[in-house]
């Protein structure tokens, strides 16, 4: 090999070297960018999972607290339904005792017990559904027991008599009022 060929080889090597380094640096930059993009995508995906899980947990908390409140408000529904016939019996007894003048002291005692029972039940959320004779019949709010011929034309389709009171526990009707309507 001559000196000139060796010098050309060295120059070629020197010329090739910076180009090789540039290509390698560019490859490293591309690799770093793809690694960074991959990490950004993974971070975004994990963030999305976290936000979905958090939202799901918040919905769960809201739903369970709503169910708990609903349970507390209607937990005594069975007990109230069981006490309603007793309340009706008290009202019938008071009506019957009022006719008997000899049982005035008994009437006062029964009235006191009845008022105490009603007051206690009202404190627990029980309220009577207000229905009066002459009100318009509504199948969503009343239970029709029977229909009888209306004594006058203005009572057709209206309530003629209330057989049994209706009651609500909170906002929920636990017993619809039983009524007689005019035909």
Automatic annotation (TrEMBL):
Homodimer. It is found in: Cytoplasm. InterPro entries: GrpE, GrpE_CC, GrpE_head. The gene is grpE. Its main location: cytoplasm. Keywords: Chaperone, Cytoplasm, Stress response. This is Protein GrpE. PANTHER family: GRPE PROTEIN, GRPE PROTEIN HOMOLOG, MITOCHONDRIAL. The keyword Cytoplasm applies. Signal peptide: none annotated. Participates actively in the response to hyperosmotic and heat shock by preventing the aggregation of stress-denatured proteins, in association with DnaK and GrpE. It is the nucleotide exchange factor for DnaK and may function as a thermosensor. Unfolded proteins bind initially to DnaJ; upon interaction with the DnaJ-bound protein, DnaK hydrolyzes its bound ATP, resulting in the formation of a stable complex. GrpE releases ADP from DnaK; ATP binding to DnaK triggers the release of the substrate protein, thus completing the reaction cycle. The keyword Cytoplasm applies. Belongs to the GrpE family. Residues 1-31 are annotated as: Disordered.
């Amino acid at each position: 090999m001559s000196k000139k060929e060796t010098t050309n080889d060295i120059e070629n090597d020197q010329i090739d070297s910076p180009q090789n380094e540039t290509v390698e640096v560019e490859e490293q930059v591309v690799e770093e960018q793809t690694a960074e993009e991959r990490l950004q995508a993974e971070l975004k995906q994990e963030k999305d999972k976290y936000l979905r899980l958090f939202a799901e947990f918040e919905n769960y908390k809201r739903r369970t607290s709503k169910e708990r409140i609903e349970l507390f408000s209607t937990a005594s529904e069975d007990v109230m339904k069981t006490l309603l016939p007793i309340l009706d019996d008290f009202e019938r007894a008071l009506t019957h005792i009022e006719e008997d003048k000899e049982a005035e002291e008994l009437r006062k005692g029964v009235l006191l017990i009845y008022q105490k029972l009603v007051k206690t039940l009202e404190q627990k959320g029980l309220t009577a559904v207000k229905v009066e004779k002459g009100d318009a019949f509504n199948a969503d709010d009343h239970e029709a027991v029977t229909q009888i011929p209306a004594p006058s034309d203005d009572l057709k389709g209206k309530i003629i008599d209330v057989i049994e009171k209706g009651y609500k526990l909170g906002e929920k009707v636990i017993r619809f009022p039983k009524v007689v309507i005019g035909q």
